[in-house]
Structure formats: structure tokens, C-alpha cells
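Archive entry. Fields below.
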Amino acid sequence: MEVNYIIVGQGLCGTFLSWQLTQQGKKVMVIDESKPGSATKLASGVINPVTGRRIVRTWEIETIMPFAVNAYIALGNELGVELIRQCNILDFHVTPQMRQAFEDRLRTEQAYLLIPENVANWGSCFTTTFGIGEINPCWLIDLNMMLERWRKKLQENNSLLNEHFDVEACEYLTDRVIYRDISAEKIFFCDGIGNIKNSLFNQLPYSPNKGEVIIVEIPGLPATNIYKQGISIVPWKEGLFWVGSTYNWQYDNLEPTSAFREKVEHQLSNWLKLPYKIVDHLVSERPANIERRPFVGIHPKYSTIGILNGMGTKGCSLAPYFAAELKEHLINGKELNPLADIQRFRNILLK
Ligand SMILES: Cc1cc2nc3c(=O)[nH]c(=O)nc-3n(C[C@H](O)[C@H](O)[C@H](O)COP(=O)(O)OP(=O)(O)OC[C@H]3O[C@@H](n4cnc5c(N)ncnc54)[C@H](O)[C@@H]3O)c2cc1C
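PREDICTED_STRUCTURE:
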């Protein structure tokens, strides 16, 4: 079978890259072994324009966030579902100092921060002793719906292989790649955390990050907002809430820990006034890297091999944008953002 591109992986990166390329009339074959604990399946799906204790804007957010919002709307329209909705973060201050820090920041960051009007209304759900700040706009994406619906579409078009891709079993020629009976102009690795073990790219400076999540039922809590106080409570699928997460850079297993469960229980007992029930405790890994910038583009040694990966903690906003950059690079020869282009690792990838 002849296709234009083989794409390994159907998480956020593989979904957006395959969608962008098929929109240009390209034929793709996506090879994805459907594993339950992938980063995209466990992510909360939040796009938050600011970050950290200092509440600073995330990298290129003024460009990347509106692009991503439009991309989810367009993909949702094609799939006949709503994939994205505005869902602002309510940031419950823990101390008077934290409230002060938010109010100080508000003086210079009026595009994304405000004091919500209805603070008293939240008193029946949460302890609101030190007030609430709002991050607005934030967006919530139904990632599991996106993965399922796009996968179905790929299957209908005979463009999906539901299996493990063996990197060593593929022939990488100068003008084509051949994998079993599939011949393609290029192959793209959108294999998430799997890329760390991929012999073609394992020199890249990955720094994987373990994230634990607790899934809870909270009857009576409106799914209108994301609630944050150290941990976040995020509306999740099937009427449940996602509570998390950890950002652990040093770990030797992917088991859930009792320490995190106890931390969540302690936090919820102090903050949440509504009864709740824990229904699951899940773990995944973020494909993060030490530069906190994506890995996008063509391998400096092999012109038929490319990558879209390294989205770290921000895949929801970065993946749609950089999939589109990569598509423009392939179809129209446009330059990639040099901070994302893997040519910056030319020296180590040429070794
Ligand atoms: C707990 C947690 C919470 C998060 N919350 C957010 C959030 O709110 N907002 C945000 O922007 N980001 C969030 N992230 C980060 C986000 O999930 C990632 O940046 C993003 O999902 C990475 O997407 P990906 O496509 O690169 O990788 P993945 O989602 O891991 O997809 C890779 C796919 O490739 C497949 N694959 C790998 N190797 C092979 C192979 N050899 N053969 C076949 N298939 C293969 C895997 O099975 C998988 O389906 C979170 C991550 C975690 C872990």
C-alpha cells in the first residue's frame, strides 16, 4: 500500500498531524497501539494561559492559544462533536499573602486575570476564607472524545493500524520508508514517551515526568469551572472530576502512591465542603524535556524521518499549533520555529 506519510502514535500529536495532513489531501497511515495510560488519555485537557507561582504568561500563548482553540473547534466540527469549551480557573487563595500576590499581579496582567464577581456563591462548595482569583479565558478539551472519534474516522478510511510499531523492522531508504506492505514518502514519530526508547531519537534531551491523578465523584459540584488550590479539580468524562496532579521528575516506577492519595484526601477535606467518593487512581508520564520546548521537524541525518513530540505539560495548546507548522513545512516549505525545530539538536542527532 502506498501512502504519503506513516505516523506512529495517535495521541495529541499524531491526531493533529494526521488531521492536518489529510486536510491537505495527503494519504496517511497511523500506527498506534491503543494503551489505556497514555499521556493524552490521562491529561485533564486544560489550556491555561498563565503558569507558576508568579502567574506569568506561558510561551507564545498569545499566538498559540487562539490557534489551538480554532483547531479544536474545526476538528470538532468535522467529527460532529464539541471538543472544546471555555472553562475558567477559579484559584482559591490559601493565605492572605497568596491573595496579595494575585492582586499585585492583576495590576500588570489584565488580559488573563480578574477577581470573580460571585465569590460568596462558592461558599457552599468550598472554603473561601482568603478569596478567589479567576484565570480567564481558560479552555477545557474533551481529549478522550477527540481520540476516539478521530480514531474511528481513520479506521473508516483504512488509515489506522491498531498495533505496536517496531522501529527496527522498518526500512529507512533515502527516498522512502517501507514498513511491511506500506510504502511512504516519510515517517513521523508522534510516539510520546515511547520516543525515549526509539533508537532514532533517543539522544534528545527528554526528562520524563510522572503524573498521578485521582478520579472522583462530587455530586452537586458544577462542571462550569476548574477549581484550583495547589491541586486542581477539573470536570472529566462521564460526570466525574479529575483531581491532580503530581509533577515528579525522579521515579523508578509508574505505580500510584498512597502519599498522593493521602495528600488529595487531606486537601479535599480542608477545602471542599461537598461529599466526594474516589473512584480511581491513575498514573501516566509526560513526554517532557529539559528545554521545555517541542521537538518538531525532520531528522538531520535522514530526510525521510520526522518527529512531533516533547510537548511536556502543555500538549493541549502546543500540539495543534506545531502540527500545523510541520504541515506547512512539508507542504509549502515554510521554516519551522527555530526554538522547536529539532535541527537545534543537529550535532547530537548526527552522531
Ligand atoms: C497527568 C497528566 C495531566 C496532564 N494535563 C495536561 C493538561 O491539562 N493540559 C495540557 O496541555 N497537557 C497536559 N498534559 C500533557 C499532555 O498530556 C501531553 O503533552 C500530550 O498528551 C502528549 O501527547 P503525545 O501525542 O506526544 O503523546 P501520547 O499521548 O503519549 O501519545 C503517544 C501515542 O503513541 C503510541 N505509541 C508509542 N509508541 C508506539 C509504538 N512503538 N507503536 C505504536 N504506538 C505507539 C502510544 O500508545 C500513544 O497512543 C498532562 C499529562 C499528564 C500525564
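CURATOR_NOTE: Residues 195 and 221 are 39 Å apart (CA to CA).
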